[in-house]
Amino acid sequence: MVNALFFIYSWFIFVPLMLLATVVAGAVCLCLVPFLGPRRVARLSAVPWARLGLLLSGVQVRVHGLENVDPSRSYVIVANHLSQYDIWVLYGHLEQDFRWVMKQELRRVPVIGVCCALLGHVFIDRRDRASALASLEQAKQRLTGGTSILFFPEGTRSRSGELRPFKKGAFRMAQDLDLPILPVTIIGTREILPADSLRMHPGTVDLTVHAPVAVTGKDDAAVEDAMARSRAAIASVGEGYLELT
C-alpha cells in the first residue's frame, strides 16, 4: 500500500513540481549568468534545484569526509556512478564548485542542456575521440581558483552495483594540470532509482569524500598508479556493495 501511494505521489505530485522547479531554475540561470558568472549562479539555481529534488523524493543524504576538501583548491573529482540521482547528490551536497564532464546527448535536453552549457559544463562526444579530447582541452582553462572538474570514470552507470573498470581520461588530465584527484563514493542511489527504471523509492544515500590522490610522475605508470589508488579508495566503503572487478 505504501509503495502504491508513493508511486502515485511520484507521478502526480513529484514530477509536476520538479518540472516547474526545473523551468524556474533554468530561468534564473539564463537571466543571471551574464551578470554573476557561472559559479555564483550555480549556487543560486542548480544547487537548490538538486536539493529540492532530493527532498521531494524522500531522499536523505549523509555526507562524510568534507574535511578532505579545500574549497580554494581545484581538483579532478572522480565518482562512481549508480543512478541518475548521483547528479542531484553531488550537485546538492559536495559543496565544491565543479564542472561536469557529460555526454553530448544531454545538450539536447530542454532547459537543462542550455543551462549546463551556460554554466560551463563540458559536453563530449564519446563516438569522436578527437572531438572529446578537444572539449577536455578547452575545459582545462576553467580549472582555477577552486573550480574543479568531475568525471564518472566508469563511463556509464553500473547496473549491477559493482565498480566497473575506469577509463584514464580523468587521471591524464590530473597529470597534465598537476591537480590532485578527489575520489568520491556514492552509496544508495541505485536503490532510490535503479538503472532502466522510472520507479523511485525514498531512502538514504551516503556520500563519502576521500583524501586527495596525487599523480606522482609524468609517465603512464604514474597514471595507472593514481587510477588504482583512486579506485581502491572509492571501493573501500559500502561493506561489499561496491566490489573491485
Series of secondary-structure elements, N-terminal to C-terminal: HEEHEHEHEHEHEH
CATH C-level: Alpha Beta
Relative strand content: 15-25%
Q: What multimeric state do the chains show? A: single chain
Strand order of the largest sheet: 1-7-6-2-5-3-4
Fold-level CATH name: Glycerol-3-phosphate (1)-acyltransferase
The low-confidence parts are none
End-to-end distance: 38 Å
State Rg: 18 Å
The main pleated sheet reads as: 7 strands, mixed
CATH superfamily: Glycerol-3-phosphate (1)-acyltransferase
Tally of separate domains: 1
Judging from the principal axes of the Cα atoms, what is the shape?
Answer: globular
Secondary-structure arrangement, i.e. CATH architecture: 3-Layer(aba) Sandwich
Total strands: the figure is 7
Q: Structural class of the helices, strands and pairings?
A: alpha/beta
Total of DSSP H or I helical runs spanning 4+ residues: 7
Secondary structure: helix percent: 40-55%
Q: Quick check: average pLDDT?
A: 90
